[in-house]
Design brief:
The protein has 143 residues and is α+β, with helices and mostly antiparallel strands. It has a single domain, classed as Hotdog Thioesterase (Thiol Ester Dehydrase, Chain A, Roll), CATH 3.10.129.10. 17% of the residues lie in helices and 43% in strands. It has a six-stranded antiparallel sheet, covered by helices on one side. A hairpin with a 2-residue loop joins strand 5 and strand 6. The radius of gyration is 15 Å and the shape is globular.
Length: 143
């Protein structure tokens, strides 16, 4: 399990764009993390303010950050950056609203050079809200 502080030691993202609050499980090729969605998130001010809905693109970004935590926590990838490289067949099935707890699941399935492919899904209260595939590319951090 990783806390917010430990996640900040791995990812370069910072508020308001750090979208992972806690890692619950992490194995060699899969990870389960959590994002607690609150009404005071900055995007709710302009994204359907009368009916707040978390933008789908940010749910996918939270999944990508979850995958990046797994990749960048491996000793051979420390001091690298994980870049979002693609999205395939992403489907959204349910809205995410303030008060939801978003469970983020990433399973890496294969790699080609420095590009990693992952099956992903996000859930609230045991119901899938989106699923698909993402690609992450590892690169050197520029000082």
């Amino acid at each position: 399990m990783l806390t917010c502080d430990e996640i900040r030691d791995i990812l370069p993202h910072r508020n308001p764009f750090l979208l992972v609050d806690r890692v619950l499980e992490m194995e060699e090729d899969r990870i389960h993390a959590r994002k607690c969605v609150t009404r005071n998130e900055p995007y709710f001010a302009g994204h359907f303010p009368e009916h707040a809905v978390m933008p789908g693109v940010l749910i996918v970004e939270a999944l990508a950050q979850t995958g990046a935590i797994l990749l960048l926590s491996q000793p051979e990838h420390r001091k690298k950056l994980a870049y979002f490289a693609g999205i395939n067949k992403m489907r959204f099935k349910k809205q995410v609203v303030p008060g939801d707890v978003l469970d983020l699941h990433v399973q890496f399935t294969r790699s080609r050079g420095s590009v990693y492919f992952a099956r992903v899904h996000a859930m609230t209260e045991g119901t899938v809200v989106c699923e698909g595939e993402i690609l992450c590319a590892l690169g050197d951090a520029h000082d």
